[in-house]
Design a protein that fits this description.
mainly beta, Jelly Rolls, five-stranded antiparallel sheet, three-stranded antiparallel sheet, 44% strand
């Protein structure tokens, strides 16, 4: 089996949206960078690089594995956003240049004082052209979330 996330070009214009279609993420299109990391995103520079292969805007984020001691460590990004509303979803665009078995795993968790909703998308179809994705957040409890964490 190949390494998960190997050679991933994930260019994502992310929106965590409530019913009013408000984007709660900071730097959702990866346009602003500081020290080789997209601003407002948690990651390590060895996993990401700025790309000009874009869906829209000037820049995108290229996410790749990092090999160490014979193991491929999957590239990861994360952001926690303050949200409001009772319905959340995550939408964006990606390219995936990968070997068989590789992919992108997207997790969204909604919180109040505890987890109240979750959404997961597991993408394995390689594509050289940008392709849209959407992750619905299934609400486990009736509480309205105040935070959403994307990883």
């Amino acid at each position: 089996m190949k390494n998960f996330y190997r050679a991933v070009l994930a260019t994502i214009c992310l929106n965590i949206v409530a019913s009013a279609q408000t984007n709660f993420l900071k730097n959702p299109g990866f346009e602003t960078w500081t020290n080789n990391v997209p601003e407002s995103w948690i990651t390590a520079p060895l996993y990401v690089s700025k790309s000009t292969t874009v869906h829209g805007g000037s820049f995108a984020m290229k996410l790749t594995n990092y090999s160490s001691l014979g193991y491929a460590l999957p590239g990861q990004i994360a952001q926690t956003a303050t949200v409001s509303g009772s319905s959340l979803s995550l939408r964006g665009w990606y390219q995936l240049n990968a070997d068989s078995g590789d992919g992108i795993l997207i997790n969204v968790a909604a919180y109040k004082t505890t987890a109240v909703g979750v959404g997961i998308e597991d993408i394995h179809a390689a594509t050289s052209a940008y392709k849209a994705f959407a992750v619905g957040v299934y609400m486990l409890l009736p509480a309205r979330p105040t935070l959403a964490r994307l990883a």
